[in-house]
């Protein structure tokens, strides 16, 4: 079971990096691009979407750090956290990328 938990840890770690890259590219795009005489970053719905992206990234990154800390401490029972991290990261990265 420990092998599965280690694998489950890798998914949120990888997804966190992908999310960070997408957020950086999104920020670059909305800062440079104009529509209807305004920068995209000035539109409320764009700000709301970016906030959602950053919140999802923060939550995924936090659970990844928590999992890493548990593994470093030698905690043997972190199955639930690993499973939650895997699911949360998988769903969040799809939402952010799309």
UniProtKB/TrEMBL annotation:
Keyword entries, A-Z: Flavoprotein
Record-linked PANTHER family: ACYL-COA DEHYDROGENASE, VERY LONG-CHAIN SPECIFIC ACYL-COA DEHYDROGENASE, MITOCHONDRIAL
Residue intervals of the Acyl-CoA dehydrogenase/oxidase C-terminal domain: 1-91
A GO molecular function held by the record: very-long-chain fatty acyl-CoA dehydrogenase activity
Pfam short name (any one): Acyl-CoA_dh_1
InterPro entries (alphabetical): AcylCo_DH-like_C, AcylCo_DH/oxidase_C
Protein's UniProt name: Acyl-CoA_dh_1 domain-containing protein
Signal peptide from the UniProt entry: none
Key word Lyase present: no
Entry keyword Chaperone: no
